[in-house]
Amino acid sequence: MSELSPRRRLLVLAICCMSLLLVSLDNTVLNVALPSLQRDLDASTSGLQWTIDAYTLVLASLLMLAGSTADRIGRRRVFTAGLVVFTLGSLLCSLAPNLEALVAFRMVQAVGGSMLNPVAMSIITNTFTDPRERARAIGAWGAVVGLSMAAGPLVGGLLVDSVGWRSIFWINLPVGLAALVLTLRFVPESRAPKARRADPVGQLLVIALFGSLTYAIIEAPHASLSTTVPFGAVALASLVALLRYESRRHEPLIDLRFFHSAPFSGATVIAVSAFASLGGFLFLSTLYLQNVRGLSALEAGLWMLPMALPTFLCAPLSGRLVGNRGPRLPLLIAGGAMTAAGLLFALFEAETSNATLVVGYVLFGVGFGFVNAPITNTAVSGMPRAQAGVASAVASTSRQLGQALGVAVIGAVLAAGVDSSSYAESFTEASRPGWWILTACGLAVLVVGAATSGRWARATARRTAERLESAEIREVAGADA
């Protein structure tokens, strides 16, 4: 891809951010609508979990395939297809007659979404080649997540209260169409110099692993051991088979050599932990504010602003810090703030007091605002540009898998402890183990971030990049010979 002018680069960044806004806004808006969905579609707690996890699971399962496919056949081509499918899926979701149809149409949305975020990040990585410019661009990218968290609850609450939950999917239609037109007009085509072959076996193993694991977790409180244990066994067998198969494949779906880099491995663990915390936090907060406190969807959205606004404000600051000082400080701030937020709820029942509830939301928002930029920058900055799509797809997969697991685990813990006959009275006590789990996720961000952002870790990243580049040169030379 030829060097673009500064103005054109900013325009490409804005278009890519529009795609992230689509995917992120959809998740935050849907969380506010969960209680309304529960009433209108007569959904159980596990049904609510599936409306979220059906989307994130398909997204996580297909992200790496989308990233490698974009590197092979063209990033703009795959990105454009993603916008079309996502917009169509949003329209279908708004027309869903029952919970089962909604879950199915959410999966259609996810197929489109899988072609957006990792491909957009690959476009950004190849557009902003200067490390500092790239870090700032990724910071702006992360700020869109904050924007979606700030606008999502308010927009979703207003739409749910005034029009109904179906309208939350309508907002994707004009944004998706505008992004499609702008992409066709301004985003240049790019692809990796050497095309990677498809890996259907690896793809099937990833789907089996993610799907069976999440099903076992979500259904555990309601189903017998004879139902859930086989799915757990399938997940374990799929993981073992995936590791063995991918390590022997010449062009794997997941290049396990990436994980020789300590910062890359750390970014993966941090992404899973941070987004598991986000998924569980939003799930618990939404149900508490509306089903326990009895607030409307709009009122619940207003209460979540103390969490959303710090995320929006801290994300670009985090990007600048990563560009100027590296990822260590933002990760320490993120892990410390998220751990403190979890402890407020787990130890001091922050939700029972307005003041502590706001403080807990602010702390979590600050932590999440600082965590996204170092994850993304670390995942792609140490890798060869030719594999930017695959590397960013692994990071995006880690995010979506984390969010799916967060909703699955926290929802299962809540379902096992809450008493349906006295929902409001039992909710606080039933959610206590969930808050401890979220505290552990924040602590994981803090510890792993500190451990994998030092000098020795950067040395492993350099060695990994050198090995990957040398391997690519040998492969190209062999092909030419």
Which helices and strands occur, and which strands form pairs?
Elements: H1 6-40, H2 45-73, H3 75-94, H4 99-113, H5 117-127, H6 131-162, H7 172-186, H8 200-219, H9 225-248, H10 262-292, H11 297-303, H12 305-325, H13 328-348, H14 354-381, H15 388-417, H16 423-451, H17 455-480
Descriptive key words:
about 475 residues, mainly alpha
- The outline comes out as globular
Strand content: under 5%
Helical content (DSSP H or I, runs of 4+): over 70%
The largest sheet, given as strand count, sense and whether it forms a barrel, is: none
* CA(first)-CA(last) distance: 26 Å
Q: How much is the radius of gyration in Å?
A: 21 Å
Task: Please report the total strand number as a whole number.
Answer: 0
Task: Give me the secondary-structure category.
Answer: mainly alpha
Uncertain regions spanning at least 5 consecutive residues: none
What oligomerization state is this entry in? Answer: single chain
Order of helices and strands: HHHHHHHHHHHHHHHHH
Number of helices: 17
Mean pLDDT: 85
Can you walk me through this structure?
There is one protein chain. This protein is mainly alpha-helical. 82% of the residues lie in helices and 0% in strands.
Summarize the structure.
The protein is mostly helical.
